[in-house]
Amino acid sequence: MATPHRRAGALLAAILALSGVLLVPSPAWAGDIYVQLSPSTVEAGYLVGIRASCSENTMPATVESAAFGTVTAQPQDGLLTAAALVPEGTDAGTFRVKLNCPDGRNGSTMLNVVAAGRPQRGPATGFGGSAGPDAGDLLLVGGITVTLLGAVLGLVALRRRAATVPSGPARGRHAP
User: Which domains does the chain have, with CATH numbers?
Assistant: First the structure.
C-alpha cells in the first residue's frame, strides 16, 4: 500500500511533468508562418488587405497571386502588411495567395473573387418586393378610399344623432 508521502510525491511529479508540457511554446506562438486576407472574398476591382507573418517580421516579404500579381508586405507593428488591388477584368474564381518569406519558407491561403456587377433590383423577400409592380398604387388608392368613406359615414352618423336629440328643455322635467 502506498504511503501518503509516496502519493504526494507521485502527484507532485505528475504536476511538474504536466506544467513542463504546458510551458513549451506552441507553434502558433513560436513564429508561425501564415498569410491572412481581409476580406477573403472580394469583387473584381476592389482592394484586399493582407496580413502575414514570417519567422522574423523585421524584413519585407512578397505575396503573390494570379488574382493581383506580386506585392511586397512591409513590417508594421510586429506583422507584415500590404494591400493589393484585384483588377476589374479578373475572372471570378478561387485563387491561391502565396507568402514568400526572406528565409525561403512560405505560407498560403485562398482568395475568392466574385464577378463585378450590380444587381438591377433587390431580392423579392417580402415587404412589397413580391407584391408586383402595380400593387403599391392599388393599395394606396384603396387606403385613401376607405379613409374618405369612413369620414363620410362618421359625418352622416353625427348629423343623424344631432337630428334625433331634442333641442328643447330636458325630458322628464315640467315647467312650474
Answer: 34-114 (2.60.40.1930)
**Per-position DSSP letters for 73-140, written without gaps between them:** EEEETTEEEEEEE--TTPPSEEEEEEEE-TTS-EEEEEEEEE-----SS----STTTTS-SSHHHHHH
In three-state secondary structure terms, 25 is coil
Which residues touch 138 (CB under 8 Å, ≥6 apart)?
none
Q: What is the pLDDT of residue 19?
A: 44
Read off the C-alpha cell for 89: 477584368
What number of CA atoms fall less than 13 Å from residue 169's CA on the CB side? Answer: 5
The predicted model gives 118-139 an average pLDDT of 62
Residue with cell 519558407: 105
The pTM (predicted TM-score) of the whole model is: 0.49
Closest CA to 86 of 107, 66, 61, 72: 66
Q: Which of 116, 117, 120, 138 is nearest to 128 (CA)?
A: 138
